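re the bet — no i am not wrong, look at it urself. input seq straight from the record:
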Amino acid sequence: MVSMSAALPEGAVRDAVGADFVAVQAIYAHHVLTGLATFEETPPSTQELLSRWAEIASLGLPYLVAECEGRVAGYSYAALYRSRPAYRYALEDSVYVAENMRGRGIGGALLRELVERCERGAWRQMVAVIGDSGNDASVALHRRAGFELIGTLRSVGFKLGRWVDTVLMQRPLGVGDATRP
């Protein structure tokens, strides 16, 4: 198997900083307006995304960007899977790549680094909630990163004039459920 990280120079994935969020907002706005990976229908402002970043950072969770050709080409972050206390060891990942930067290994590099960082913490499971069962690229990206298909929720969203499925994938972080927290 060819390493996907070979497409990015060493150090191209790094912690996000405030100045990255104009680019992050542009990348996400494109996905919100044209795709099914997210079920948001109105792109949030840069200020809203900065607020979301601050909340993620306050939990000690990673928010990463990938730089390619001198600009932010994609981003990833981990968030709590659910807010109730019993879910405190489960995270959900998000990965978005600029449309004109797809196919360069950016998503794989972001997801690999995100998983590695989350494995350093107390978390034990990572869940991918993938919009659109036809999103073969995201399913393949997660499968390469060790995620297993858990199931599909049929027609749980309605966006861009059609019903949309959600694919659930999961992978353990570190020792997973082999030991108690």
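see?? Residues 1-6 have pLDDT under 50 and may be disordered. told u. also The CA atoms of residues 74 and 97 lie 4 Å apart. so pay up
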